User: Fold these one by one.
Assistant:
Number 1:
Amino acid sequence: MTAEVFYDDDADLALIQSKKVAVLGYGSQGHAHALSLRDSGIDVVIGLPEGSKSRAKAQEQGLRVLSPAEASAEADVIMVLAPDTAQRSLYADAIAPNLTAGKALLFGHGLNIRYGFITPPADVDVAMVAPKGPGHLVRRQYVDGKGVPCLVAVEQDATGTAFPLALAYTKAIGGTRAGAIRTTFKEETETDLFGEQAVLCGGASALVQTGFEVLTEAGYAPEIAYFECLHELKLIVDLMYEGGIARMRYSVSDTAEYGDYSRGPRVVDSRVKDEMRKILSEIQSGEFAREWIAEDDAGRPNFTKWRAEGAAHPIEETGKKLRGMMSWVDRPITETA
Ligand SMILES: NC(=O)C1=CN([C@@H]2O[C@H](COP(=O)(O)OP(=O)(O)OC[C@H]3O[C@@H](n4cnc5c(N)ncnc54)[C@H](OP(=O)(O)O)[C@@H]3O)[C@@H](O)[C@H]2O)C=CC1
Ligand SMILES: CC[C@](O)(C(C)=O)C(=O)O
Ligand SMILES: [Mg+2]
Ligand SMILES: [Mg+2]
């Protein structure tokens, strides 16, 4: 089935400009949505708990900050951009008591709706605007006059205008400059989790670290291993981004292209593909979501250990030293792009 893709001319900004929007959370996605909504002429208020360290950042950016409950009470449109693991209790404590008929409840990712951790009442719109990129780049692209593609979905259309409203929101954060694809909460949630686990984050990090380990354990210089397995990956992926795998293969040497065809499938072989299928089935059954919520409820013991191990991997120390010599590479991640 061909996807329906919407661009700027398909979206009516006035639909969201006439609403008050509460953005709950001011992290990677929250700051990007809030600042770009404001710059698109929308009345936006931020909802953050007392004591949240994000409060100062939002206020420094000139945004009005209230508690999540106060912001939800004021708003017509409530965008939930707190961590996925915090959304259940945020919804129960702050949003639900203020979710009156006709309001719109929006998400940046479908996990809590897809797996039933949140069940909104039937008289509100429930929709999603999910950028297909990290929040800091969502903001940077908006500021640069570009945009990150977004997935847009409607779970519940109480007003009959949920989709055009979500599309207007997407336009306000730059998404329809690049393309907004209509989907469902189920499809977004399952493909997003699969992508980040098997390819974009899990797969790519493991590939880079393992390549670095093989070269350094064989006695090659860590600096050379870093450039080969991490730094140059961006340059190769840039070519894929611009013109697909075919353009990358056009630009590399025939020697590299032959190595690609003959060796790549030995690295990502049928065992890896079977494991990817297993990962997908854990996502589809809800096993992954239940595991992650339980890990968070238990205080994140594995997450904390794995984060520390990742930060201590030798590739990080080598990279820090080398990036220090390339002022144009270590572009800081900021709230202003
Ligand atoms: N990161 C990304 O680029 C992407 C994220 N998404 C989705 O966007 C959503 C937000 O993720 P992300 O931006 O990564 O989150 P972050 O972890 O970057 O930021 C979370 C923000 O929520 C605040 N927060 C924490 N608890 C609460 C609460 N109870 N009520 C209100 N605010 C709270 C945090 O404040 P404090 O400073 O106090 O911690 C912080 O400002 C998730 O659904 C995620 O799946 C979708 C696409 C990409
Ligand atoms: C790839 C990770 C992501 O899904 C994203 C930036 O799109 C996320 O959840 O952060
Ligand atoms: Mg994603
Ligand atoms: Mg994700």
Note: DSSP finds 17 helices and nine strands in the chain.
Number 2:
Amino acid sequence: MAGDVLDLRGVGVRRDGATLLHDVTWAVDEGDRWVIAGPNGAGKTTLLQVAAALLYPTEGAVRVLGEELGRTDVFELRPRIGIASAAVAERVPAGETVLDLVLTASYAILGRWREEYDSTDLARAAGLLEALGCGDLIGRRFDTLSEGERKRVQIARALMPDPELLLLDEPAAGLDLGAREDLVNRLGRLADDPAAPTMVMVTHHVEEVPPGVTHALLLRKGGIVAQGKVDEVFTEEHLSACFGVPLGVDRQNGRWYARTAR
Ligand SMILES: Nc1ncnc2c1ncn2[C@@H]1O[C@H](COP(=O)(O)OP(=O)(O)OP(=O)(O)O)[C@@H](O)[C@H]1O
């Protein structure tokens, strides 16, 4: 069904007199793997916040997992969505352990309090950390981790509630080359897994787009430049218009590369 996971119609977001998003109409179907790309300040994070039911639009209509924002209890909706973003990482309480950070995703909360977790929860958290290549970090404090370790732990947390929708905001930002490639390959395996949730990932760089991504949406100055099947969107014409520089684009082994045309 068109837009059964996300259905945005004529969405606009304004804050303090500034237009962050305008005229965004976008549909995401179950099983899709989307990437949202665009330059700094294009509105990517704002759009992801709307998709996460964390931000209400100023205008337009938004349905997330079939529920209309403004007419649904977002506290029931949010646990169905896994999100990894810098905004979430900044709100992790000081001293929180990696295990507790992953476990508390079951309740869509940050900071362990008095909730009860059983052995199934513990095994799932440990298994996800292992699958993301950070099983050995389970007892560490999140605030002592490197940037690359934090990114992987956050993705494990986002997957913990077995979400129907997985949102990743710049998962590879701040990673060194080896860590970026490791993460892109892991995300590629996740994208290829038919049991994995519908995915939407935000990035500035087409090099960070994992193989297996099916669709792309390009944003510039709060508006959509192009959207659709990834190979129809990641063209020299669309990427040049989106980033405001003439770009040459290559594709090799399912990965994308862009550089200024000479
Ligand atoms: N309260 C606000 N008042 C005015 N402008 C705002 C406000 N909040 C955000 N903005 C602006 O909205 C624009 C979109 O921000 P957003 O974080 O969504 O962009 P982005 O594409 O994720 O950027 P980046 O790639 O740099 O992270 C930015 O230019 C930002 O400065």
Note: The radius of gyration is 18 Å.
